[in-house]
């Protein structure tokens, strides 16, 4: 049995625990901004070609040994424009978020890390590169985790206590536990509440994430064609979870990317949804680390690994 990747189809079952969220909240809304621009595949990062997961460049074909300036430019929009637009949406409303930040992205754009820290947002690790870590050997991934932690500390003044690789390897979670200092990771999509994994002498908290209430829906089929589509998806998920929260409080994840939702035609959906969520009573909008701290105090050991 792999303690860090169990096949658990039951989970909490019919009667999940009452999280007793602060203030008696019936729903937690946790907003994530993925900071990846500059960490994607490109010859400038030592890869054999450019990032090719770009549905907005229809028909793009990656050629080995060549830069693709259009692909790079789509990412540049995220860091140059989209990041700051989304940050303003949260700042104007006084709302916190958690950034999943790739180390290479902050290494190339330390101003982004400084701005997140200045506004009081949490910065969690998102790998050193925005790549598939199944293709990376264990020693390199171990070094990438350590390097990313140092970069986040250098740019924000705090070491990360959370982690989300996204394209995770079989070694990732074990390496995080080995590294120590993390309150949680979010490389799971299997629940709406945190849960513990453990082996003798060690325990690790997982706060699942979502790829459904996530702006990648603009880029996959069937997905969202307009801001109205995305807003409807988010609103409907929120309203159902809020109604269920009277007896079964849970977490709603909102996943955003600067190069996707940072465009004006899409940022409007984020603004409308944040206002909709803020209009309801009994909603705790918080950082991911605050969920971890609450869960540890309520359901687990009050120590880091």
Which topology does CATH recognise? TIM Barrel
The helix tally amounts to 9
Strand-residue proportion: 5-15%
Determine Rg (CA atoms, Å): 19 Å
Q: In CATH's first tier, which class applies?
A: Alpha Beta
The total count of strands amounts to 9
User: Which architecture per CATH?
Assistant: Alpha-Beta Barrel
Q: What share of residues is helical?
A: 25-40%
End-to-end distance: 21 Å
Structure, explained:
By secondary structure, this protein is an alpha/beta fold. The protein has one domain (22-37, 70-299): TIM Barrel. 38% of the residues lie in helices and 14% in strands. The chain is built from nine helices and nine strands. The strands form three sheets. Strands 1, 2, 3, 8 and 9 form a five-stranded parallel beta sheet that branches. A two-stranded parallel sheet has the order 4-5. It has a two-stranded antiparallel ribbon with strand order 6-7.
Topology of this protein?
Blueprint: E1 27-35, H1 69-93, E2 98-101, H2 103-108, H3 110-118, E3 122-125, H4 138-156, E4 162-163, H5 172-179, E5 184-185, E6 195-199, E7 202-206, H6 227-244, E8 250-257, H7 258-261, H8 264-278, E9 283-286, H9 288-299
Parallel strand pairs: 1-2, 1-8, 1-9, 2-3, 4-5
Antiparallel strand pairs: 6-7
Characteristics of this structure?
single chain; 5-stranded parallel β-sheet; 305 residues; TIM Barrel; 9 strands
Task: Give the structure's gist in a few sentences.
By secondary structure, this protein is of the alpha/beta class.
